[in-house]
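seq as requested:
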Amino acid sequence: METTVVSELFPLFHAAETETLDWLLSVSVEQAFTEQDQILSNQSWGNAVYFIVSGWVKLIRWHDQTPITLSVQGRGDFFGESAVLDEPPRGTEVIALTKTEVISISAQRFIQILFQDPQLHHKLLQITVRRLKQTDTRLQLRYYPPVVKLAYTLVNLADSYGKPTEEGMEILLLSKSDLADLADLTQDETEQFLSKFQNKGWIEFNSNQETLSVTNMRQLTHLATGNI
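struct tokens:
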């Protein structure tokens, strides 16, 4: 992968020095996974940081032998850094939702990069703060109507990972259980409000049944943020 591609694809590396990116690519490992492959197990956290080149993954935590989806990430994002810098999470795994390609860099090399390039260190702090804010918003949403929670979840996915198309912002069509976990809803509520959004023309299920397009971002954003 070219240095310029890495810089453009990953927000974390937008301000990184060229020398940093060249070195990163020289020590990184390219990996490919198929749908439902386990990328990170409970025992392997803290060994490396993973950068998503293509595809989608979900982070799940097991509770009473039931997997709960904590987050979904797509192209341009990364995971595993918190376990490198702090304690690894317990009972947590990362699963590929689609065919997924990543580049990984070992924990030792990642920490070296942070010391070598202050701009990268600063950017990582910015992204970490943004993620904390998103987590705080999700906690606040627990007390809001289900329709608001689902709207916020879809808007957040579209803002973070959406692919612009003629129909709108295209995202992965998650399973009802994954989407329900992310929005803190029941599967029945999720299905009910997805149908309402579709009838209003705010979303569209694409013909391949693998993706969903947010076709009226303005209205969905107004519903999601106008009540928070």
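The CA atoms of residues 91 and 167 lie 39 Å apart.
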